[in-house]
Structure prediction request, 311 residues.
Amino acid sequence: MNMDDIFTLASNDMRARRSKALQDAESNKIKALENDEYKSIANKIGELTIDIAKARFKKEDATPFEKEYDKAIKEEAKILSKLKLTKQDLEPQFKCTLCEDKGFSQNKHCSCFNELISFYTNRYNLNTLQPISFNDCKEIDPKIVETMVKFTKEYPEKRKFVNILIAGSVGVGKTQLTQATANAFLDKGLYTIFTTASSLNSNFLDYHKCFNDNKNQYLHHFLECDVLVIDDLGTEPMLNNVTKEYLLMLISERMLVRKLTIISTNLTADELTYRYGERLVSRLLDYHTSVSIQIIGKDLRLRSKNKNNQE
Ligand SMILES: [Zn+2]
Prediction:
């Protein structure tokens, strides 16, 4: 199961949703029209609709037709209820009124489609997101955890930052904190993707190597999601013309539309600059738009002490 499969699954679900809504309405209509009483009232309503339109067009009095029409509608409801149907049952009942279950509205993926992607991504553990909450982050300085709790609570009403960089050595609980943060955003109903830097890098490479219309599927969800969490930046292999370039593109694009990106890393600012270049790091460390959090864990001190003892 990869991101392609998730995309296909979600698209199939959308199609099934829409066609069910259309089919249900159609079969209810057929059922109703099998009834002669309903058929005749439906015809009458159709004729009256035309009469009303004609009268209004000619600027004549449409009231008599309108009265007839109201009566016919009531009659129709009575007949339908005998058939255990309502007027609504004859129209497609789409789950999403915004896109009528097409998955697209205004040339963009509809939020209902993004929810499906989120759902499957988490269901298939594609993003290795564990059910960790802030309560599980016991190893981390409570002040840092509190800051993140507050930030997730207030977001998106208060969009203070678009980038959060969580830095610290191995074993200080960065992944715990980023996972808890991702879960908090998911609980808020935000389209959130949690990915490792390696997995993201593979998507960059797939995108880079693809030359057909499917190209966008490798990156579009990373661009579109409300919150993107990239775990362990710096552990992925550095691919020429890929890793650095697409990461910069992704972060810059997301910043333009003020979407939140959270990055965890073992690297220091200098190491990040050496690896990804000044342009990316200046964006990530710009205090107008970004915040960086340094975690120093108990774990780490303990480990380095043991290490020193061994030496
Ligand atoms: Zn929709």
Notes: Residues 96, 98-99, 110, 112 surround zinc ion (CB under 6 Å).
